[in-house]
């Protein structure tokens, strides 16, 4: 088989690249090792409502469980910070359907799509990557392409085989554990987040409602912590008298929260999405980041094909690092500071911050918020808190 572009992995970034490049008239193959694209999910399934227009994705009720109007944050001692909008600010997806539909949109744009096709190695000719070796329904197949896109998740075998350094230390990953379960008593118009060093070390517990009485209930903690994510999630459920007896689905995963890949393009191979660690380090969400990276990558792939100049792919690395990469590095600074906060600190900051402030901090647009906090008496009187916050400026 021979294509202009082969995309390995049909999560979020992969189908965006495949669709955009196919729309430009080039031959594209999108492959995924799973027999059913979208399963199993490894995601809390929440995303901003803005992405649908921004990335030209239909607002399709088939993969939208419900609209969300904000968030509520809970401090270790029970202080609450609520951010509520009059109009929907986000949605809870059904990722099993959403991912498959993204692949469908790529196919409709002209890309070929093959499920149950696992990339095994790269093909090299004259010292350069010329394609990939794969298995399609257990039969070996060789796929040749001018450009190869590694969108194959956290471990990204294709990127490593191509010589791209994707190493990150264990501390730059979170372990997550999630139940989709029946649960009541939480406002289903909001997502709910609990913080605390005894609740979720370096992370948080979440309740993302999918129905009035059904939600994704999960946790993310530092992957190098001695206790497991499941231990802390079960502990939280027990302490809040929530019986874990109506479990519809259990998902386990590893989430990159740092360690961004520096070299996003090497010769004719690009890496995008989780494979490139393009994830928000503060909350671990990566869908919007994958869409953005996929959009930038596909733009430069099309340019490189149009001008028959593979070196133009290097502009993907340059543009991403000057835009979303710069923003995510600022968010990474926040994550590193929050790791040093005591429960008393978390209580104080959740009391001092407004919902809008919390949103700015999570997005990386926090300069004015930090300057205001540095003037508060309870911060001024603590050299340690002053020093931590100054690290963000």
TrEMBL record:
GO CC terms in record: membrane
List of residues binding FAD: 13, 32, 43-44, 46, 95, 119, 274, 286-287
Catalytic activities: CDP-2,3-bis-O-(geranylgeranyl)-sn-glycerol + 8 AH2 = CDP-2,3-bis-O-(phytanyl)-sn-glycerol + 8 A; archaetidylserine + 8 AH2 = 2,3-bis-O-phytanyl-sn-glycero-3-phospho-L-serine + 8 A; 2,3-bis-O-(phytanyl)-sn-glycerol 1-phosphate + 8 A = 2,3-bis-O-(geranylgeranyl)-sn-glycerol 1-phosphate + 8 AH2; a 2,3-bis-O-phytanyl-sn-glycerol 1-phospholipid + 8 A = a 2,3-bis-O-(geranylgeranyl)-sn-glycerol 1-phospholipid + 8 AH2
GO biological process, one term: glycerophospholipid biosynthetic process
Gene Ontology MF annotations: flavin adenine dinucleotide binding; geranylgeranyl reductase activity; oxidoreductase activity, acting on the CH-CH group of donors, NAD or NADP as acceptor
Enzyme class, UniProt record, top EC level: oxidoreductase
Statement: the UniProt record of this protein carries the keyword Oxidoreductase: yes
Cofactor note: Binds 1 FAD per subunit.
Associated pathway: Membrane lipid metabolism; glycerophospholipid metabolism
Key words, A-Z: FAD, Flavoprotein, Lipid biosynthesis, Lipid metabolism, Oxidoreductase, Phospholipid biosynthesis, Phospholipid metabolism
Note: Reduction reaction proceeds via syn addition of hydrogen for double bonds.
Family the entry assigns: Belongs to the geranylgeranyl reductase family. DGGGPL reductase subfamily.
PANTHER family membership: DIGERANYLGERANYLGLYCEROPHOSPHOLIPID REDUCTASE, GERANYLGERANYL DIPHOSPHATE REDUCTASE
Designated name of the protein: Digeranylgeranylglycerophospholipid reductase
Classification of source organism: Archaea, Methanobacteriati, Methanobacteriota, Thermococci, Thermococcales
């Amino acid at each position: 088989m021979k294509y202009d572009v082969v995309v390995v992995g049909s999560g979020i970034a992969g189908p965006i690249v495949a669709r955009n490049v196919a729309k430009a008239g080039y031959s594209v193959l999108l492959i995924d090792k799973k027999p059913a694209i979208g399963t199993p999910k490894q995601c809390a399934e929440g995303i901003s409502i803005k992405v649908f227009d921004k990335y030209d994705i239909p607002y399709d009720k088939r993969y939208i469980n419900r609209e969300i109007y904000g968030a509520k944050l809970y401090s270790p001692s029970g202080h609450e910070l609520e951010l509520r909008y009059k109009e929907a600010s986000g949605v809870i997806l059904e990722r099993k359907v959403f991912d498959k539909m993204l692949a469908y949109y790529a196919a409709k744009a002209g890309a070929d799509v093959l499920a149950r096709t696992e990339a095994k190695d790269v093909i090299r000719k004259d010292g350069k990557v010329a394609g990939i070796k794969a298995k399609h329904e257990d039969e070996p197949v060789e796929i040749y392409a001018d450009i190869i896109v590694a969108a194959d998740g956290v471990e990204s075998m294709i990127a490593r085989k191509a010589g791209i350094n994707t190493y990150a230390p264990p501390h730059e990953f979170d372990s997550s554990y999630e139940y989709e379960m029946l649960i009541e008593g939480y406002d289903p118009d909001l997502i709910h987040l609990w913080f605390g060093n005894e609740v979720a070390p370096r992370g948080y517990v979440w309740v993302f409602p999918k129905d009035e009485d059904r939600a994704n209930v999960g946790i993310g903690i530092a992957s190098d912590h001695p206790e497991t994510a499941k231990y802390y999630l079960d502990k939280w459920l027990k302490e809040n008298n929530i019986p874990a007896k109506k479990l519809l689905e259990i998902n386990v995963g590893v989430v990159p929260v740092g360690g961004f890949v520096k070299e996003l393009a090497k010769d004719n191979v690009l890496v995008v999405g989780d494979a490139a660690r393009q994830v928000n380090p503060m909350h671990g969400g990566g869908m919007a980041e994958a869409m953005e990276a996929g959009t930038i990558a596909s733009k430069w792939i099309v340019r490189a094909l149009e001008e028959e100049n593979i070196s133009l792919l290097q502009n993907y690395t340059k543009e991403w690092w000057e835009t979303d990469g710069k923003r995510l590095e600022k968010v990474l600074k926040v994550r590193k500071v929050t790791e040093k906060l005591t429960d008393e600190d978390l209580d104080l900051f959740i009391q001092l911050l407004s919902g809008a402030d919390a949103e700015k901090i999570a997005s990386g647009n926090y300069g004015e918020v930090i300057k205001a906090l540095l003037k508060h008496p309870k911060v001024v009187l603590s050299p340690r808190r002053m020093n931590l916050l100054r690290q963000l400026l």
